[in-house]
Write a structure and sequence with these properties.
The complex is a heterodimer of chains A (185) and B (581). By secondary structure, chain A is an alpha+beta fold. Helices cover 31% and strands 23% of the residues of chain A. The chains are: A alpha+beta (185), B alpha/beta (581). The A-B interface holds A 36, 38, 46-48, 50-54, 57-58, 61-62, 65-66, 92-95, 97-99, 103, 105-107, 109, 138, 141-142, 144-146 and B 192, 194, 228-230, 292-293, 295-296, 332-340, 346-347, 548-549, 552.
Chain lengths: 185, 581
């Protein structure tokens, strides 16, 4: 039976996402996260100026993809960072296979780095994990269409379910937030 | 006010309220007869503007038989009649979308109400007249009939059929570039419906769009994967296994979906005929067929080569030898899935990725390994074209897609690459709905005079938004074909700008016929004399390099307004004259 066709209780879905997140906290290299952007690109303000360091990013990307495969149902992952120039921001650093329900598109013209969400505040400011649940919309429909969804027992309307956890660097400081998410339908 | 029927060619645009001519440059409506010239296996076209007509009136146009030399005839079936749709932009009406009259029943009160025109107005029609390849050269005369309710107007038509026989294939590749799943957006019942890509409805509408492009001497170039590398399952054959044992489990659905484009059967019963599509983007990307988790490891190469070989063998077995199959790595850093710009590179080290893929390409998809099937390594090189064409990339890149100005700066290097069998294109800008059709007509001419091999009139051509007909996005700059869903059909309909692009493509094909005899330089000199231009003028460019986010920073289409309507008409005629010698 393909991953999508199984049905899970909500408690199991949450447990599995939490398990993936916990593994991710150990295996996502926080130091590499800090090196993901080339130094000249750390404070990019438009798409043209975004320049990754592939030596850091490729292993991070592979780790994210591997994490996703550990889950018994389809899920995806995202790394989020605080910008060094705007510390109150919470900005996508790198997507796994799919973009986060909050991830959005490329930075538009006149980009304003987004403020931290409540969940990212919990991670970056208090070192806590945080759950988020959002009712279905366009992004949820896209994720369902792409197979990033799990059948939940008793669920009538689809929603995205995201878990954000801190990932530390070698100095013990929080380098990024790891998001693990799925759509429950 | 008395009703009149006037006509104009592709360059004259009429607004519907007063039937006035929209553009300046000495254009005016003409009284009958309609006078046309066409090559054999070619198309001539004209517009009719009828009015004023009452809001309650129904207006139709019917082609009649044209009688030519001896007993030669061109029957009414050679006419394709479209009703002109008008777009409201900046408080003005502009014609652009063209709806087949057989769909609307003419310019009817319901049609005009749908457009948003109230009361008395003028009805606009676009008419294509196809000349079969075996038509006898000479003058054909007859009429078309305009009916306004019960009132009839006979409009005499005189067509000169030239000796030149225009080839069905197009000299320049006109790529109507788009991204999956743009097409479904045109049909409400398909939008966001899970699994819609596998439905018969989707296949019909997709073929309708591809046919519309084909009919106008272009092709839909449909990028099947997103920046994440996500591929809808309907756009790649299913795979199983790992490493050297990775394989395609079945070609059945892939063949059913795309085979008709490669053998031409999808284009049966078009005027242009069942010619295989010129180019096609393959699903090859950073994440297919090889698993990116294995990137830079032996398994990645093994998977690439294993599935690649199966693809080549299968395409050979199917004898799909007329289509160029493109690898185009489209991923960009700004979307935050992969750490390289695979096209539109700004930072040159990103090209190292192409060097890595060169190693995978050679021995799998290069020409020696795949003949007689053709696979092309295509590179989007908007900002660093002048670096790329002199670098080691030129040893394996088959197609360069530059911006408008890039190729103009390096004609000699371009000639060397073309001599080696490479192709140089521009992705450019061809005007929007408010612009004169001369803007669209100009693009193929510019490419031809710069000796390029292909172009994209814009980076997208099926941008429909929520309502392509009443709220065309982006002033229509990225919309050249319209979805027939507005009229309850699964077909797709052209724009006037697409017709102008077609006409320039046809003109260039006539020039190329002449070039076989007299050489292309002489043909181009002849064109320059008519246009009052020196050959070097085509290679001047004010385009700087390394402009940011070029899609909105590159200057809007320019140069087209330097060529007068009169000069365009002389150029069109000259092409047929040279080709007929």
């Amino acid at each position: 039976m393909s991953k999508m066709k199984k049905t899970f209780k909500m408690s199991r879905i949450k447990d599995e996402l939490a398990r993936i997140a916990r593994i991710g906290q150990e295996f996502v290299d926080g130091d590499l996260c800090r090196q993901a952007w080339e130094p000249h690109s750390e404070t990019f303000m438009c798409g043209d100026d975004m320049d990754y360091n592939p030596d850091a990013c490729v292993p991070l990307k592979k780790t994210l993809m591997r994490l996703e495969r550990l889950c018994p149902f389809p899920c995806s992952t995202t790394l989020w960072r605080r910008r060094p120039d705007f510390p109150d921001t919470g900005e996508v650093l790198l997507f796994g296979m799919h973009s986060s329900p909050q991830g959005g598109n490329k930075p538009p013209r006149g980009y304003v780095p987004p403020k931290m969400t409540r969940e990212l505040e919990a991670v970056f400011l208090r070192g806590e994990s945080a759950w988020r649940k959002d009712a279905g919309g366009g992004t949820v429909a896209i994720l369902i269409g792409r197979g990033v969804a799990v059948n939940g027992v008793g669920v009538k309307n689809p929603f995205s379910l995201q878990l954000f956890v801190p990932v530390k660097d070698s100095m013990g400081d929080i380098a990024v937030a790891l998001e693990v998410f799925t759509v429950v339908s | 006010m008395k009703k009149k029927v006037m006509w104009g060619d592709e360059f004259v645009r009429f607004e519907p309220v007063k039937g006035a001519v929209l553009d300046g440059d000495g254009q005016k409506a003409q009284a009958a007869p309609v006078t046309l010239t066409a090559g054999r296996n070619g198309v001539a076209d004209f517009q009719l503007i009828v009015g004023p007509v009452a809001g309650s009136a129904s207006v139709t146009v019917s082609g009649g038989t044209l009688s030519g030399p001896g007993k030669a005839k061109l029957g009414a079936s050679q006419f394709d009649v479209y009703v002109e749709w008008y777009h409201r932009l900046d408080k003005k009406w502009y014609p652009d979308a063209l709806v087949p009259q057989k769909v609307t029943g003419g310019s009817t009160p319901a049609f005009r109400q749908n457009v948003g025109i109230k009361g008395s107005s003028h009805a606009g029609f676009w008419v294509d007249l196809f000349v079969p390849g075996n038509a006898r050269p000479g003058v054909y005369e007859g009429k078309v009939t305009v009916k306004v309710d019960d009132e009839r107007f006979a409009v005499p038509v005189s067509l000169t059929v030239c000796k030149a026989r225009i080839l069905a294939g197009a000299h320049l590749d006109m790529s109507l570039n788009n991204y999956v799943d743009a097409i479904s957006g045109g049909w409400r019942e398909l939008r966001r419906k899970p699994g819609h890509l596998a439905t018969a409805k989707y296949r019909r509408v997709e073929q309708g769009v591809f046919r519309a492009a084909h009919e106008h001497r272009g092709f839909i170039h449909y990028m099947p994967y997103g920046h994440s590398g996500y591929l809808p399952p309907e756009f790649a054959p299913p795979l199983t296994g790992e490493g050297p044992r990775k394989r395609v489990t079945s070609w059945t659905e892939w063949d059913r979906h795309f085979g008709p484009y490669f053998d031409g059967s999808a284009f049966k019963n078009t005027r242009r005929g069942a010619i295989p599509i010129k180019r096609f983007y393959l699903p090859l990307n950073l994440h297919w067929p090889a698993d990116f988790v294995k990137f830079d490891q032996p398994g990645y190469e093994a998977e690439w080569r294993a599935v690649g070989k199966q693809m080549v063998d299968h395409f050979r077995e199917k004898k799909w030898t007329k289509t160029h199959f493109d690898l185009f790595l489209n991923h960009k850093q700004r979307f935050r899935f992969f750490p390289w710009d695979c096209e539109e590179v700004k930072y040159l080290p990103d090209n190292d990725l192409q060097r890595r893929f060169r190693k995978l390409w050679e021995g799998t998809f290069d020409r020696k390994s795949t003949k007689p099937v053709k696979f092309d390594y295509t590179l989007g090189t908007t900002w660093v074209y002048e670096d790329d064409i002199y670098s080691d990339l030129s040893e394996f890149i088959d197609v360069y897609i530059a911006n408008t100005g890039g190729p103009a700066g390096h004609p000699q290097r371009q000639a060397e690459l073309v001599e080696q069998g490479r192709a140089i294109w521009s992705c450019t800008h061809s005007g929007g709905i408010p612009d004169s059709t001369r803007a669209a007509a100009y693009t193929p001419l510019l490419m031809y005079m710069r000796n390029l091999q292909g172009f994209m009139p814009r980076w997208a051509s099926l941008a429909w938004g929520a309502d392509a007909w009443h709220q065309t996005p982006d002033m229509g700059m990225t919309t050249f074909i319209y979805p027939g869903s507005e009229f309850g059909t699964d077909d797709a309909y052209p724009s006037m700008r697409l017709k102008s692009l077609r006409n320039s493509q046809q003109m260039i094909d006539a020039f190329e016929l002449a070039a076989k005899r007299m050489g292309r330089k002489k043909v181009q000199s002849s064109a320059n004399r008519i246009l009052g231009m020196k050959s070097g003028a085509w290679f001047e460019t004010g385009q700087g390099k390394r402009r940011a986010d070029w899609g909105s920073v590159e200057a809007p289409v320019s140069g087209w307004s330097d060529i007068s309507t009169t000069a365009w008409r002389k150029l069109r005629a000259k092409a047929l004259e040279l080709a007929s010698r």
